[in-house]
Structure formats: C-alpha cells, structure tokens
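Sample entry (535 residues):
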Amino acid sequence: MRIQTDFLVLGSGIAGLTFAIKAARAHTNRKILVLTKTVEGESNTRYAQGGVAAVWDHEKDTFGKHVDDTLDAGDGLCRRDIVEIVVQEGPERVQELIDWGARFDKEKDSGNYDLAREGGHSEHRILHYKDLTGWEMQRALLEEAKRYPNIEVLEHYFALDLITQHHLGHMVIRVTPGIECYGCYALNKQNGEIDTLLSRVTVVCTGGTGQVYKSTTNPVIATGDGIAMTYRAKGRVENMEFVQFHPTSLYNPAGENPSFLVSEAVRGFGGILKTAEGEEFMHLYDERLSLAPRDIVARAIDSEMKKRGTDCMYLDCRHLNKDAFTAHFPTIYEKCLGLGIDPMKTMIPVVPACHYMCGGIQVDEFGRSSIRRLYAAGECSSTGLHGANRLASNSLLEAMVFAHRIFLDTLDKVGQWSFQENVPDWSAEGTTEPKEMVLITQSIKELKEIMSYYVGIVRSNVRLKRALDRLYLLYQETEELYKTTTISPQLMELRNLITIAYLITRSATHRRESRGLHYTTDYSGKLPFIEFSVL
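Predicted structure, serialized as tokens:
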C-alpha cells in the first residue's frame, strides 16, 4: 500500500506528539501521520519518573544557574548556544503542556508547584507528578492529540528504512550533497505487508537505544531504530560513545527487562548511597556526595561493587518521613514492597543500568539533520544540549523545545516540498520465511553480553577491540539473514541494535580521553581541545 501524508512522524513520545499537535493546529488542511511500533503512548517518555527541569521560581533560581549546571554536567562538550535556547524557551513549553492538561504536584499550603532537586542541579527546579511524571505528560499529550482530526496514529507499524535518492537508483554516500528524505518503508505488523509512506516532511522521534545492553531502564521498544535508519541513509550521527547509565536501578536478582528505575529524585529528597554495611562512600568520589552528576555516581557505584565483589550498593531512605516519601514516590514504594523491601526499614538495593543516549542524529538549532526534509527530536537526536553527560530531567525539556522549533522551521517549507512519486515499492523477491527464530533471539542475547562486558561504564582499548571483532561477526551473520529471509520486527530490531552497538563502540575508540560518560582506563586525562565524534 502507498500512503501520502504532509508530515510523517516516527514515534509517539513527547517529541513526536508535541510536534504533531502543533502541526495539526497550524495546518488544519494538512495530514499528520504518526507511526508507533506498538500502541500509542508506549515510549521512553512514559517511563520517565523524575520530572522536567525548568526555571520556575525566579526568586531563587535563574536561567544562568540552569545553564551553568547543564554545562558543568556536559563536561565541556555542550553547545552553549543550544543550552541557552533550551533553558530560556523551556518554561514556555512546559506552560503549554500545563495548558493542555498536564498536572504537576503542588504544595498543599501555598499552591505553588512542588519543585524537586536532582543530581547536578544547584536549585530546586524539577516539576513532577509523583514518580510518574512521564506517564502524566504522555497522558496529557494523547488527550490533546485526539482533538485534531487531521492527526492519524498508525499503531503496530515498524519503520524499516528512510527513503532517499538511493531508492531511485542514485549513488548516495555520506558526503553526497543534497541527500533528501521522501518518507519511509514501514512494516504493518498486523498483516505483514510493507507499505510505502511518502511525505513532504519526516520527523524522527524514535527514542533511545537502551536495549543494546543487558540491564536498562528503557522499554523493550528502545532499539535505536531512528538512529540506525538515519545512519544507513547516510545521515550524520555523533557522540554515540556517551551512553548514560542511571546510577540507581532497582537490583532484582531474578532479572527484569526493563530494569525498574529508582528515580534520582529520591536522592534529591534525602536518600543516601551506602554500602551493605551502612557506610557512606560518595565522599570518596565527589564533594556533592549522592547528588553528584550521574556519570560520577554511576562510576562510583560500579567501582565500589568491583572493589567489594558485591552485586549492588544501597540507597538508604530509612531516615525519611514515611508519609512524605510514599506521597512523592508511591510507585517506587509499592515496587519495593512487592519484592519484600520496605524502604522505611530496609535499604534499597541499587545498581547502574543503561538509561539514556546523549548522542544520536546530528541536528542544528531547528532540529534539521544533514539530510534535507528530515528532522529529529528527543533522545534519538544530538542537539548539543547534553554534551558528554545529560543533566537530570533535561531530556523532556529538550524534546518539547526542539519539537516546537521543528514546527517553526517547517511552517512555511512544507508547502514548498512535493511528493516523490517515482519511489518503488519494497521488494521481497528471493526471500523466504526464517526457519529458526533462535538465530535471531540468540544473536540479540550475544549482542547485549558483548556491549555490557566490553563497552559499559568503564572501557579500555582491549575491550573495545574485542567488541568490534565480535560485532563484525554478528553483523555478517545478520546481513545474510536479512538478504535471504522475509522481514520480521525481531530481525529488524537485531539489525538496528547491531548498528547502534557498532556506532557506540566505534565512537568510543575514536575518543582517546576520559570525558563525561566515556571513561577509559587507557586515557585518564582530557584532551586540551573540544572535539565531537561524527560518524
């Protein structure tokens, strides 16, 4: 089937839905098509617990403080102009979401917003809804999106490849000038057919890459599809070595995918990191103790676990007020009780888990990628905001700001771009049904093992070399499957994950220094100049 739409949005998280709503309001006569590979609302957004950072209390907080905190966390690789844009435009975007129905917690006495503080922040500026902030923001966006008849959400559609001049028979390489995106091919998971979706504008909002690791707080859909598709389309991807590991996912010996996140806001609320013996240890690593930036805390926990030969560290909340704790963190409290852990009596076992990709599709200040008519927003993009390490609760803010900026940039351009009618339909000639699905599932397990052991929180040249060698074998095996068997979501996710793993590992080999989230035992110091890793 061939489908034409004015705006094609890949992903239904906060970035995708914010853009879709704005486009629908401004272009009532144009069609906005939103693709999601599961059901609407299943995205990284809904799993965000902590909140969204914005300068709200102007008596105590300033844009300058938020900018400085972001730059400090980014360890010298943030683009200051982008940081200032996001920080200054952020409160207006948050207010829009509030106007669309998002509810953030307020103080009972004053009625003012209950602003939390998280690691790396110098002030209380985190707006939140209990410990379900992402869920609440997603709910408000879905309700608002339903008001516009020109927004259509296609559920259970898996985007396979971006369509460019390559599909018209032209040679396209990474330095080819004027590469254009005409839409994408997508697998309808309900009938198994591959549709050709043609669009004037394509916006990639496909979220993160967490499933490339064994332990991650990301949902199972976070397989880096948008980044992998853009890389295959010869678009620029950067800073993939900067993978953020959240310091405190809930340790569950039985295993869990995704890992349950114990929000950074718990430490902002007064939770203290300790050893099994109840001894504090963060003073050995940073003067900000348990509220140091995530890269520092994650490495500290990893270091203590290795030194002591233990499977986890602990978060002590026993000294906190029970009523206040359960009011702020009802989901975390109930989850712990379900595992036999009462946070008011027993310390919470925690372990770092892959949480956020700071790199991604290289975009400018209006979300434009290196491919014309192709934009990106949210976790799949690399705007320059996060640098070498994301400041807590800046991600939802970034997604809203850049969704708005993409909307502004496409406001007049969409009418200037026409459909490319000569695009051929997908050809599955010569392929057959896979005989053994175990070939795919086992390769995914092997990939996660490789990345977790060799390209994790602490890296080395030897580990990275071994990872690249193993990944190349997986790549060869998977490409042979891709050429000879019919398309399945599992095969495409494996293919995308291998691409993401390669990009992370290759970028890590290029960065011959320890900076932010990239820590290597071979290069302890930082280079005296700033560089971006672009692939």
